[in-house]
Write a structure and sequence with these properties.
The chain is an alpha+beta fold. It folds into 2 domains: about 110 residues; about 120 residues, Sandwich (Immunoglobulin-like), CATH 2.60.40. Helix content is about 40%, strand content about 20%.
Length: about 325
C-alpha cells in the first residue's frame, strides 16, 4: 500500500514540476520585456540594423581601336565599289552607299568615348565624314540635273571632294596616335576641261554638195551641232563658245538640227562630260541645188528677231554626233 502511495506521490510531484516548467516558459515569453526595458506585455521592440553599401563598380572603357575600325571600314568598303560602276546609274547607287556609311560613321563616332590623345583627331574625323556625305550628295544631284554627264566627270567630282581628303588627313593623325585603319581612297580621275579647235568636224559626211550651213554660237558653252537624216547625224561640227563655224558641201536633203552643249568634250565618248544640255530645232532645214546653192544660218543664243524655236531632247534619244 505504501508503495502505491509513494507512487502516487511521485506522480503528483512530477505533474507539479511539469506545471512549473510551463509557467516558466510563459513567464519568459511575457517577462522578457522587463529584461529588455519594457514592462507592458506585447509592446513591439524596435530593432536597428546597420548595412554597409556595396561599392559602385567603375565602368570599363571599351577599346577605341575596334570602335574606330567598325565605323570607318564600311566607308572604305563603299568607296571600293566605285571601281565596279559601269554607268552613271551604277555610280549613283554606289554614291548612295558612301553617303549612308559616312553619315553613320560620323554619328557613331560623335558619341564614342575616345582617348584624350585622339580627341582633336576624332572631332576632325567626324566633321570630315559629315562633309564627305554632303559632297557625295552634290555629285548625285549633279548627275540628276545633268551637271555631270559622264562616269569620268562624276568620279572626278568625287575625287575632288574636300571631305574625302579631310577624312584621310584625320585618319593619318589617328595612325600616328596608334590607331590604324584600313581606309583607302580608290584611284579616281582628275577633273578636266577638254575642247576642240573651233570648226572641227566631229562627224564628217561626204560633203560633196553645194549647201552651206552656218552656226553662230554666241552662248557661254561650247556646242556640237549636227545635221541629221532619219534620226542619224550626218555632219557634226564643234563650235566653241563665242565663235562661229561653217559647214560647206552639204548634200541636198531635208535635215533636222540637233545641238549638244556643255563643257569638257570627251572625244572618245563623243559627248560633253559636264553641264550638258540637248536640244533640237523645231523646223527642218532643206538643202536644194538649183541655180544657187542653199545656205542656212542659225544662232545658238536667243536673239531679238529670232524665228526658230528649240525643244529639249532626252539624252537617250539624242543622235550621237
Amino acid at each position: 500500500m505504501r508503495f502505491t502511495g509513494s507512487d502516487g506521490f511521485v506522480g503528483k510531484a512530477g505533474l507539479a514540476v511539469g506545471s512549473a516548467l510551463v509557467l516558466a516558459a510563459c513567464s519568459g515569453g511575457g517577462g522578457g520585456g522587463s529584461a529588455g526595458g519594457s514592462s507592458v506585455p506585447g509592446t513591439p521592440v524596435s530593432v536597428r540594423t546597420s548595412a554597409t553599401p556595396s561599392p559602385t563598380p567603375t565602368p570599363t572603357r571599351a577599346p577605341y581601336g575596334p570602335v574606330l575600325s567598325a565605323n570607318v571600314d564600311p566607308v572604305t568598303t563603299a568607296l571600293a565599289q566605285v571601281a565596279g560602276a559601269k554607268s552613271l546609274t551604277d555610280l549613283d547607287t554606289v554614291l548612295g552607299g558612301i553617303a549612308t556609311s559616312a553619315q553613320g560613321a560620323a554619328k557613331a563616332l560623335g558619341k564614342a568615348d575616345e582617348p584624350p590623345a585622339v580627341s582633336v583627331a576624332q572631332t576632325e574625323l567626324v566633321a570630315a565624314l559629315t562633309s564627305l556625305a554632303a559632297d557625295v550628295g552634290k555629285v548625285r544631284s549633279g548627275i540628276k540635273f545633268h551637271e555631270v554627264c559622264a562616269l569620268s566627270s562624276a568620279e572626278a567630282e568625287l575625287g575632288a571632294s574636300q571631305g574625302l581628303s579631310a577624312v584621310s588627313a584625320a585618319l593619318t593623325k589617328m595612325t600616328t596616335a596608334g590607331y590604324q585603319t584600313t581606309f583607302a581612297v580608290p584611284q579616281l580621275p582628275q577633273q578636266q576641261n577638254r575642247s576642240l579647235d573651233n570648226g572641227s568636224m566631229v562627224r564628217k559626211g561626204k560633203l560633196r554638195g553645194e549647201g552651206v550651213f552656218k552656226v553662230d554660237n554666241g552662248g557661254k558653252a561650247d556646242a556640237v551641232v549636227s545635221l541629221a537624216l532619219n534620226g542619224k547625224a550626218v555632219h557634226s561640227v564643234f563650235v566653241a563658245k563665242g565663235q562661229k563655224a561653217d559647214v560647206e558641201g552639204v548634200e541636198d536633203g531635208t535635215y533636222e538640227v540637233f545641238v549638244s552643249g556643255g563643257a569638257d568634250w570627251d572625244s572618245d565618248a563623243k559627248g560633253f562630260t559636264k553641264d550638258c544640255h540637248f536640244t533640237k530645232f523645231e523646223d527642218t532645214f532643206a538643202f536644194e541645188t538649183g541655180r544657187t546653192a542653199t545656205s542656212w544660218e542659225i544662232t545658238l543664243q536667243p536673239v531679238a528677231d529670232g524665228n526658230a524655236k528649240t525643244n529639249d531632247v532626252d539624252p537617250n534619244a539624242f543622235p550621237q554626233p
